[in-house]
Amino acid sequence: MPGTVPAELEITKAATGTLFRLAFTTRLHGPCYRCLDDAVLELPVAGREYQATNPDGSDELRTPYLHDGSLDLAGWARDALALALPDKILCRAECAGLCPVCGKDLNREPHTHDEEMPDSRWAALEGLRKQL
User: Fold this and answer.
1) Cα(49)–Cα(126) distance, integer angstroms
2) Is the pTM for the entire model greater than 0.85?
3) How many domains does the chain have?
4) 8, 41, 45, 88: which could join 33 in a potential S-S bond, CB 3.0 to 4.6 Å?
5) Alpha-carbon gap, residue 3 to 17, rounded angstroms
6) Composition of the chain by helix, strand, coil, percent to 5
7) Does pLDDT of 3 surpass 80?
């Protein structure tokens, strides 16, 4: 089970409703998108929700995380985290990735290949090109 994460919750009562603000920082562990090495990412997460005093059937004026006066903080935090996730988790911004020819980690062994080997999957098309 994951450990607990300290969070800040601010509830502001207004004349027209209630504003909820949530903020926390979490740490993600996983493979780097480019080199598959371990990646650790500190991710700040922030969310805001509003619940009108009289929403009159409008979904925009009510939060889905408030049920019978009880705030579903775990569900809200999960959804806020999902929205804050980056497209790609990288071990570092300048990660060079893997060599497309030999698959070696270019961060540890920067190199180039003198001649590119043609992809054998395209051999049939290459034969057609030569016939034309």
Assistant:
1) 58
2) no
3) 2
4) 88
5) 33
6) 20, 35, 45
7) no
